[in-house]
Write a structure and sequence with these properties.
Elements: H1 4-10, H2 13-22, H3 51-62, H4 70-76, E1 79-82, E2 87-89, E3 95-98, H5 116-124, E4 129-134, E5 137-141, E6 148-152, E7 157-160, H6 166-179, E8 186-190, H7 208-212, E9 217-221, H8 224-230, H9 236-246, E10 279-281, E11 285-290, E12 293-299, E13 309-313, E14 318-320, H10 343-358, E15 363-365, E16 372-373, H11 375-400, H12 409-412, H13 417-420, H14 432-444, H15 459-469, H16 473-485, H17 489-502, H18 507-522, H19 527-542, H20 555-560, H21 563-573, E17 584-590, E18 595-602, E19 605-610, E20 619-622, H22 625-632, H23 638-643, E21 648-651, H24 654-660
Parallel strand pairs: 7-8, 8-9, 9-10, 14-15, 17-20
Antiparallel strand pairs: 1-4, 2-3, 4-5, 5-6, 6-7, 11-12, 12-13, 13-14, 15-16, 17-18, 18-19, 20-21
Bound molecules: zinc ion.
Length: 699
Amino acid sequence: MTTRRELVGTVPLAGAALAVASSFIVDGGSARAQQAPLAGHFHPKGKAPSQHTVNVLRQARNGLPLGDTRDLDEQKKGLIAPMEEMTIMADAGHVAWDMERFQFLDQQDEFDSIHPSLLRQSRLNNNYGLYEAIPGIYQVRGFDLSNITFVRGKTGWIVFDPLVSAEPVRAAWKLFQDHIGEGLPVTAVIYSHTHGDHWGGVRGLVDEADVRSGKVALIAPFDFMEFTVSENVYAGNAMNRRLFYQYGLLLPAAPHGYVGQGLGQAVSAGATGLIAPNRFVTEPIEAFEVDGVNMIFQNTPNTEAPREMNTYLPDLKALWMAENVNATLHNIYTLRGTLVRDPLAWSKYIAEALYRFGLEAEVLFGSHHWPRWGNERIQEVLRGQRDIYANMNNQVLHLANQGVTINEVHNVYEVPKELQEKWYCRGYHGSPQHNARGVIQRYLGFWDCNPATLIPLSPSDSAPLYVEMMGGSAKILGRGRELHDKGEYLLATEIVNKLVQAEPDNAEARDLLADIFEQIGYQQENPGLRNSFLNGAYELRTGISQGETANSSSPDIIRAMTTELFLNFLGIRMDSRKAEGLRFTMNLFTPDNGEQFIVELENATLTNIKGFQAKAPDLTLTINRSDLEQTMMGAKTLEAQIADGTAKVEGNAAILAALATTIVNFDPRFEIMPGTHGSAGAVALGDPYQAVPNKTIAE
Ligand SMILES: [Zn+2]
């Protein structure tokens, strides 16, 4: 199995670039000469940072708390052994992990195309090896987006958060055993939360049989299995598409491209899997021994993830803050798309951890970044992280209560100076801008309450009028270039975007908008914002692929998906417009787990209700849940299940065929920027666009 970036990585970029270059034509109507490709830029249309951008970054540098160098010491502290091999191979034969491509970050002091604060963070994330947090607690860092942590138990090792995929986990385990592990086995695994970078590599470490037999304890917060998949299913195809923007999936690691994800350098591309826990932490606070180590678990639902928990090890005075406390402001709103998180709850759970455990803890560690040592430093970090989320919640609502809208708040809200001076409150994952808008979205929704924006025309419908009123494309291009050349990039975006919306085939307009986006991208401290602008520029310049997309399912993820979730998603996949006039009532019974559903299609809407059976259904379908999984994965059709007797039907089986004609396979290659669909020289994207429910998303 390969992940998105890995497959993108297999695309011969040079070849794609050549294809673009060969279709280069100097626009007849353009007064501007086509610039030569910039040496060192990965794209033939790529531009250097302008003097305006260079000035913006220089000024940004002056505002950074560069005198506080504690991160640099903490990140290095406790290094036992660096990882010597720069790549980790996947069993499938491709490269699962590649740190070589991030070495450029350390090869010069500054880059005029990378925000100095982001560069600093990405350099810190270049740590790559085995570290001691305190005697008895070790971390392998830089093998994936997340860390893997080993805690000495009485008879073996307790593992926190086994990365995204199995191969990096095995490499981490080997490095650990070579230096520290004493050949002792894994006795317990703790999943801190539901995101894929905290459990996906578990099969690299333990056998499922040992979990089922109870030999290995596998501990997770309550409702873990439900929430591992549910967060990403309903809007999953759209999220996958949007990940190309947030994570810059088409951009090579390079000074003008991808420079890391803030939380870590990237997401590994090995084999992912999921083993169900055999113990859940259900109480708000629960204390028990894990392989002889006293642990106090604090459930923190609806914070960074729908289900998450912190853990305190009182005998070691060691506080594991999962992904609730990081060396960054985290996402309240995630650009790939998500339900907006609850920053007030998040802040309060950190405050609770501070007062329950943080007043005596001597080491603070988590699933991303590096530990903090000494109670004073720990309290400072906990208080700062508590306050950044509380401040965003409170101050944004303060502004909203004074009339500031979702369309203004990112220009009005400012992180307090005291928090700006704390590196770990700066926006390397969440940005103050998109988080501020997210808070308003959470409480008030999308509407700014101006009726003009209540039922607006679609951009492509309103844009032609703007273009006409502005005097046509030549005038817009001229003024757009002026604004671009003056460094007024956001203003330039306003008018050139209108032209691209009105005239998707206007290559000159698309190229100018790409140039504008690129400069805005270079100026961003936040990698999600940077990647979004640079990926937008990339797609405007190159177009998006119309090639085949691969579609494979991870059996572990399908198994974790409830039948109800599957049926709900079926209702989303059904195109209501194709179901007009259809009507049926179906009973579904899965004997092996005893679940019953009524599935009903009427009013062009597919619904289901668990725990009920209709008295006179049009059809009764009986199939074991374990067999249904084959159909859920796409391995075996329902027709085949019926034909060989695996599934039994009573009543009108033609209903299933009628239903099938209404079900759509989502295509993730939909266009975001106008005029980018099926462009010549487009990069084949393949598996990156794999739609859920096959995968979960790392964060
Ligand atoms: Zn994570």
